[in-house]
């Protein structure tokens, strides 16, 4: 059984859009692209290196795939670029006719479930908001690693949109960077618990 691990940079108000740079995803008039970079520190570099040190495959939505495919194959002198370029890339898309980045394969939600039940390395989901929401709705994500930045962006594409099934999570690990970024690891923990009937009601 393979584990699906979602790695998401997110603001305090839940925005995950364009953390890396101004041109990454300006959709909807988003003007805060690159918001994560000024808060980066060496501790976060270490966590990232540790995360990428083990074998992994990538699972990406169309938009994130296009961003990654346009950048990382041309930056294999970077340790992250080398790891991403060497990994198998599974792409959840109906719109792309060609997947030009070497090692890329098209997959749908049913295909992801088959991948998960097979043998192989961990599967990392980076960004990919629409694909991640589909995986969450299908109960396929084993771990959410949220890098929560102390920023209120006020608008943009959000991690969890209305309509997802109610799910409890358990906190498996937490770390804090020197710049106030909180890196929390959450794992699904079944349905949301509700209070016993009558609890908290006035007499």
TrEMBL record:
Xref: PANTHER family: BIFUNCTIONAL DEAMINASE-REDUCTASE DOMAIN PROTEIN (PTHR38011:SF2), DIHYDROFOLATE REDUCTASE FAMILY PROTEIN (AFU_ORTHOLOGUE AFUA_8G06820) (PTHR38011)
Domain Bacterial bifunctional deaminase-reductase C-terminal: 4-182
Name of this chain's protein: Bifunctional deaminase-reductase domain protein
GO term, biological process aspect, one: riboflavin biosynthetic process
InterPro entries: DHFR-like_dom_sf (IPR024072), RibDG_C (IPR002734), Riboflavin_Biosynth_HTPR (IPR050765)
Signal peptide: none
Top-rank lineage group of the source organism: Bacteria
UniProt xrefs under Gene3D superfamilies: Dihydrofolate Reductase, subunit A
Gene Ontology molecular function, alphabetical: 5-amino-6-(5-phosphoribosylamino)uracil reductase activity
């Amino acid at each position: 059984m393979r584990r699906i691990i979602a790695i998401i940079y997110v603001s305090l108000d839940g925005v995950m859009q364009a953390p890396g740079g101004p041109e990454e995803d300006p959709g909807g008039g988003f003007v805060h692209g690159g918001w994560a970079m000024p808060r980066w520190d060496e501790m976060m570099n270490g966590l990232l290196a540790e995360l990428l040190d083990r074998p992994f495959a990538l699972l990406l939505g169309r938009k994130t795939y296009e961003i990654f495919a346009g950048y990382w194959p041309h930056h294999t002198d970077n340790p992250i670029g080398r790891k991403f370029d060497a990994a198998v890339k599974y792409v959840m898309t109906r719109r792309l006719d060609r997947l030009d980045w070497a090692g890329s394969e098209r997959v749908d939600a049913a295909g992801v479930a088959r991948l998960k039940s097979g043998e192989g390395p961990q599967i990392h989901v980076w960004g990919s908001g629409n694909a991640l929401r589909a995986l969450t709705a299908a109960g396929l994500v084993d771990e959410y690693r949220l890098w929560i930045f102390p920023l209120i962006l006020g608008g943009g594409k959000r991690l969890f949109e209305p309509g997802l099934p109610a799910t409890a999570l358990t906190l498996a690990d937490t770390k804090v960077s020197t710049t106030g970024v909180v890196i929390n690891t959450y794992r699904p923990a079944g349905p949301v618990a509700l209070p016993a009937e009558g609890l908290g009601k006035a007499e």
